[in-house]
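re the bet — no i am not wrong, look at it urself. input seq straight from the record:
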Amino acid sequence: NGSLYLTLQGFYNIFSAENTIALDFLGLSSLFGINLQVPIYVNVFAESLQIALISTLVCLLLGYPAAYILAKRSQQRRGGSNFLLFLFVMPMWMNALLRTYAWLALLEPTGIINSLLGYIGLGPFQFLYNDFGVGLGMVYNYLPFMVLPIHSVLVKISSSLVEAAEDLGADRVQTFRRVIFPLSLPGIISGINMVFMPAMTTFLIPDLLGGGRYLLIGNAIERQFMISRDMTTGSALSIVLLVFVLASMRVLTRYEKESSEGGMLL
C-alpha cells in the first residue's frame, strides 16, 4: 500500500496543474497562435519528443544516402567501400562520453570551429547550450545506428530486380521508388528504432552540450534521483518513459515485420 501511494503521488507530481508552462511542440503553438498551458513535466516530455524526432529525421536524411552509396560500392566491388563503412562504425567503438567531450572542444566560443571561422571574418557563433548543439551531438552519436541497418538491407537487394525494372522501361527514379525503397523499408524502420529510442532517453548529451540548462526527460529523471532525491517523482517519470518507449518499439516492430513481408512478396 505504501509503495502504491508513493507511485500515485509521483504521478500526481508529474501531471499536477499547479505549475504550468506554455507548450510549443514543433512550433505549432506559435504557428497557430495557441497558448496551451500544460504541467512542466508534460512540456519536458514534449521537448524530448521534439528533439528526438528531429534528430531521427536528420539521421535518416543523412544516413540513407550514405548507406545507399556504400551498398552500391560494395555490390560493384569497388575498392574503399569497406574502409568507408569502417569510418562510420569506428565512432561506435569509442566511449560516448569521450565523443561528446570532443564536440565541446570543437564547438565552444574559443574552439577549433569558431577559430577557423574567425580567420575568414565570421563568428564567433554560439553552437553550444542550444537546440543546435544538442541536436548535433545526437546526430553524430546515433548516425551509425541508422546507416548500418539500412546498408545491411540495401546490400542484399538482388541486382537482377533492378535490371528487371530497367528492362521493363523504368528509369532510375522509378526503379528507386518502386523497387529499392520499398525493399529497404525494414532497414529504415530498424534504423529509426535504433536512433529514436536512445535520442528520446539520453541525458548525457543534453547535460554536456546543453550546459546543464537543457532539460529533457532523461535529465529530469536523473535530477530527481541524483539531486532532488525525489524518488517518487523520478520513479513515476521512469514508468511513463518506459511505457512510451515500449509502445513505440511495439509499433515500429510491427511495421518492420509488415514491410519485411511486403518485401518478400515483391
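see?? The longest helix spans residues 40-75. told u. also The chain has one domain: 2-265. so pay up
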